[in-house]
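Question thread 4412

I'm putting together a teaching handout and wanted feedback from people who do this every day. The idea is simple: show students a protein as raw sequence, then show them the structure tokens that encode its fold, then repeat with a second protein so they can compare. Below is the first pair exactly as I plan to print it.
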Amino acid sequence: VGRYARGALQQAGLWPAVQAKMISTQNVRQSLDYVARGEVDAGFVYATDAQAMSARVQRAFQVPVAGGIAYPLAMVKTSRNAAEAKRFIAFVRSAQGQAILHRHGFGSP
């Protein structure tokens, strides 16, 4: 269980009831794989990851996370491809880039 799921369970007062039943994975993708293969009954994964595997997993509910989950987009200061990086960032922030992100379950910044 990652920090977002644990925090939400603790906030809801459910952590003590489920803690002993939890298994740890290396990352959220491994959790998603376990669910997709039927090795576990349920798992906490990002909605965007579940959406990418919607043919094999079903999203049961959304866990409220204080402050939301952010995916930063940044350019490395010492990039040898600064112009391309700036163009990519501009594309991601454009209407077309935002439409692609929304289609895959991401919200706007």
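The second pair follows. I'd like the answer to focus on this one:
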Amino acid sequence: MGGLERVYELGKDFRNEGLSTKHNPEFTMVEWYEAYADYGDAMDRVEQLVIGIASAIDYEGPIDFSAPWPRIPLAQAIKDATDIDILEHTERDSLVAAISASEKVKLDVEDRAWPTLVDDLLSKYVEPAVTNPVFITDYPTALSPFAKQHRSEEGLVERFEAFCNGMEFANAFSELNDPDEQRRRFEDQVRLAEAGEEESQPYDEVFVQALEQGMPPTAGVGLGIDRLVMLMTGRDSIREVVLFPAMRD
């Protein structure tokens, strides 16, 4: 990273997404990258940062931020909530059949690719039930094209998202630093896009060429400041914590 082993940026992000109590097109995020670290180190840092903030402001709300936060693999979290094992249904048709047969799950499966269906199970059946902070870890490769392969679990990557009070507020992973594997991942993303996956990543050859110059093992984190403020202040809507939540023509 330009000779710097630890870098961070705190600034504004803009995404062309819909409005909700958890989403605003303009939001504030802190991102950091740490060389010679992995997603386990990143979990430790997120946990320490949030607990430190809660302590500094004398937080007295209903959320228990105390360590250690649970670390639950994504497949286990979804299975606990829905009885569906996504690792047993790694093809779209198989997962659609499992969802259709489930008495617990009601999802629109038409024109939904496998990664989108997995994300739907997470966002609609796992995320809303979370109160105290938890790390959901070890995502399927198809959901995380920039994350490094898991060191011991085939088909998974070293990624986590931090959830609290029914929403995700941080996303991180051990960065994929193998240019050949990254090229293959981009090719997979192109195929997903052709199959109708709206969240697929475009092929970025310049990024692959940059990786070919060499990159050390690295952990990267993105943490939403607005959502963190919501947690610390007990607010239910992001509109209550941003300066200009809406603009008129």
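Top answer:
Good format. For the second protein you could add a caption like this: The radius of gyration is 19 Å. The CA atoms of residues 100 and 181 lie 34 Å apart.
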